[in-house]
Amino acid sequence: MQDKNISLLDLFLTFAKVGAMTFGGGYAMLPVIEKELIDKKQWMTRQELMDFFAVSQVTPGVIAVNTASLLGYQKRRILGALSATLGIITPSIIIITIIALFLKQYMSAEITERLFASIRICVAALIVNALLPFFKKGIVSLFTGLLFAFSLAVYFYFKISPALLVVFCAIAAIIHNAIQRKTAK
Amino acid sequence: MTYLLLYIEFFKIGLFAVGGGLATLPFLYQLSFKTGWFTTHQLADMIAVSEITPGPLGINMATFSGFNAGGILGGIIATLGIVTPSVIVIIIVAGILNKFIKNKYVADAFTGLRPAVCALVTIAVWEIVKVSVFDFKLYEQTSNLKDLFLLKNIIYLFILFILIRKVKLHPIVYIGLSAAVGIFVQF
How many domains in chain B? Predict the structure, then answer.
C-alpha cells in the first residue's frame, strides 16, 4: 500500500540500519528485516516479504537490494525505491572503504576465518529461527506442501537454478488453481 | 575513463547475476581475468572480509573490488553500477505488478511462489549449516561417521538457537556475541 506518511529519509535510514546489521549474502538479512520492518515498523507482513523475495530471486541483481527497492517502491514509488536502495548500500560503502583503507593489513586470514566460522553458525541459527513462521504462511495446503518438497528435491538432485524453480512453482500454482476452480463448478 | 569502465562492468554484473550476491562471484572472477583490476587471490580475501563485515555480500564485494580498481571513488561507482539495473528492473516490475496484483492468475502464482521461497531459504540455511557443522572432506578420507560431525560446532549452533528462541534479543546482539566467541574459540 502506498503510504505518504513514510518519509524518504525514514526509508533511507531504516534500510541503512538493515544494511549495517546484515552479515552474509541473500537471505542472511531475513532476521534483521523481520525485526526492523515487520515487527518494529510494521511496513509489511511476512507474506509480503515472501512475495518480495520471490520477485527478487527472478529479477537481476543482489537480493537485498531488490527487496529494498520493492518495498521502497511500494511505499513511495520511484523516489522510495531510490531512497531504500541508497540506504541499504551506504553502510557497505562506508565500512568496506574504511577497511580497505586502514584495516586490511590487520585482518589476517587466520582472524577473518575464525570470526567467519563463528558468525556463520550464528547466521544459520538466526535464519532458522526467522524461517519457522514463514512455513506457517507459505505452506498452507497439501498442494503448497508438495511444491515445497518438490522444490527441495529438484534443487538437491538436479542443482536447478533457483530462478527456474520459482518460475516453475508459479506456473504449477496457476494451473493447479485453475483446475480446482473448474472441478468446483 | 577507468570510472566509466568500472560503472559499465558492474552494471553488467548487476544485470546478469540473477539470484543474489553469491551469483555475482563467477562474474567477479571473470572480471579479474579480463581486466587485472584485482587478482583472484585478492578476490578470495575480499570474500572472507565481506562475509564478516556488515552489509549484503554482493554489495560489499562490489565496493571492495571497485576500491581495488579505482580507490574510494571506484568503490562508490562500482556499487552504484551493480545496483542500477536492479532498481530499473524492479521499478518496471513493481509498476506492472501493482496493476495486476488483483488479477486472479497473479494471486494464484504467488500461492506457488511462497512455498518455493520457503524452499530457497531452507536451501540457503542448509548451505551454511553444511559447511559449518559437517566435515565432509575428513569423512571422505576416513569413512568414519564420527569424523563427519563437528561436535563443538553443533553444540554451539544448538545453544545459539535456544538462546535466540527464548531470549528474543535483536539479531545483531547474537552476531556480536558470536564474533566475541570466535576470538576465543576456533570453530
Answer: 2
Rounded Cα distance between A125 and B174, Å, is: 10
A157 contacts in B (CB within 8 Å)? none
- The closest of A174, A20, A145, A131 to B125, measured between CA atoms, is A131
Among candidate residues B78, B100, B122, the one where a domain is terminated: B100
Residue-by-residue pLDDT tens, chain B, 187 positions: 689 999 999 999 999 887 666 678 888 888 999 998 888 888 888 888 888 899 998 899 999 999 999 999 999 999 999 999 999 999 999 999 888 888 999 999 999 999 998 998 898 889 888 888 888 888 888 888 888 888 999 999 999 999 999 998 999 999 999 999 998 998 8
CB contact under 8 A, A65 and B86: yes
Inside any domain, residue B117: no
Domain that holds residue B68: 2-100
In a domain, B26, yes or no: yes
What residues of chain A, 48 to 87, have a C-beta less than 8 Å from chain B?
Answer: 50-51, 53-66, 69-70, 73-74, 78, 81-82, 85
Show which of B100, B117, B150 is a domain's final residue. B100
Domain match, B10 and B96 both: yes
Tell me the shortest Cα–Cα distance from B180 to chain A, in angstroms. Answer: 8
CB atoms within 10 A of CB B105: 13
Amino acid letter, residue A161? S
How many other C-beta atoms can be found within 10 angstroms of the C-beta atom of residue B5?
Answer: 15
Global confidence as pTM: 0.90
